[in-house]
Inverse folding.
């Protein structure tokens, strides 16, 4: 379903963000971090998420946006509720998604990870379309970056547990991992 060319998905909407940094040659991609986001919180659709990642969010548009003034963040991709995928940063570059973070005692997860945002919240179930796209995207990323093994697919909560809770308790890790395994097996036969 997905393929990657020069760090970009060929089957996704592309909205390049200025909020990224080049990866160092030594920064081998080996981690996939799953996040959630909704702006305003619990509200879906609209362009506020893209506006945030592109540095053009009108912080006067909603009272909850006051805390986002001057924030420079991005993700590699966003999967909307309907399964639509938007890519903001090339996988070959570092998106600014993890913040202060650590995985297996290694700091600065942005350096060696890919960040995927799901449009959602910690307590509203994700859609079937989001799981389908996330599974297809993960398999594509694992094919391109084989160091992203099953044990290196985590939530933001796992790399920044004091600060973050996403993708939240409603994210069905068991279902996601089972589908990944089944699909990978089918692809290899």
């Amino acid at each position: 379903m997905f393929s990657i060319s020069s760090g970009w998905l060929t089957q996704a909407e592309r909205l390049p963000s200025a909020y990224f940094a080049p990866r160092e040659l030594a920064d081998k991609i080996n981690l996939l971090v799953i996040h959630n986001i909704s702006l305003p919180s619990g509200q879906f659709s609209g362009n506020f998420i893209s506006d945030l990642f592109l540095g053009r969010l009108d912080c006067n548009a909603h009272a909850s946006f006051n805390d986002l003034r001057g924030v420079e963040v991005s993700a590699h991709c966003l999967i909307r509720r309907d399964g639509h995928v938007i890519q903001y940063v090339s996988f070959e570059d570092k998106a600014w998604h993890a913040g202060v973070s650590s995985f297996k005692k290694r700091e600065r997860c942005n350096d060696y990870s890919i960040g995927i945002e799901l449009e959602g919240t910690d307590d509203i179930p994700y859609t079937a379309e989001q799981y389908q796209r996330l599974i297809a995207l993960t398999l594509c990323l694992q094919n391109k970056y084989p160091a992203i093994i099953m044990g290196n697919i985590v939530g933001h909560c796992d790399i920044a547990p004091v600060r973050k809770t996403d993708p939240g308790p409603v994210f069905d890790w068991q279902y996601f991992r089972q589908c990944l395994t089944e699909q990978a097996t089918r692809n290899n036969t």
User: Anything to note?
Assistant: Residues 128-144 form the longest helix (17 residues).
